Amino acid sequence: MKVLFVASAFLALACAAAGDSEDLAVPDKEVDVDANTAVKTETATFGAGCFWGVEHSFRQVEGVVNTAVGYAGGSVDEPTYRQVCSGNTGHAEVVQVMYDPDKVSYDQLLDTFWSIHDPTTKNRQGPDIGYQYRSVIFYHSAEQQAAAEASKQKLDESGRYHRPVVTAIEPAGSFWRAEEYHQRYYEKHGVKGCAVN
Predict the structure, then answer these.
(1) Which of 67, 117, 158, 175 is the most exposed place for a label (fewest CB within 10 A)?
(2) For 2-15+43-194, CATH number?
(3) Is 15 a catalytic residue?
(4) Where are the domains positioned within the chain?
């Protein structure tokens, strides 16, 4: 887990330096489904620093059907990346995860969330500092809220960290999809595409 966190922190360096870039198409993650079988999906939304690495981590989880990076928790409609980076909109960089609950549970997604960032640093992940990089879980149901609160308490009481877990747990409101060049950034550019020059 420490290796994954260190890698996420290293790769997050590029977020602060990101600017407009050419959109490179990456196909959606597809699910093999029998034509007569409908896949029931649910949605989860997490903020854990720069959304590039967070999205990449969740896309590796078996049972995750699709992901999108974007902005949530703010007061401005249809914010741009530059507006969110200014710190004046109140949004967090988040990943919206569509998942098949028959293949992965919400609790397993929470375990992934806790493992990929430091939930004890307020408004900061590695070199990324600002309210937009806060640790936050946006719940979509009362069940998700209860699971998130129980998971946070369990982590806080585990002794894993010497500081308290500061992750916010808030109701999901509007999700604003980020600009296309941010979507599946690591699949488009790989680690080399994220290196800071």
Answers:
(1) 158
(2) 3.30.1060.10
(3) no
(4) 2-15+43-194
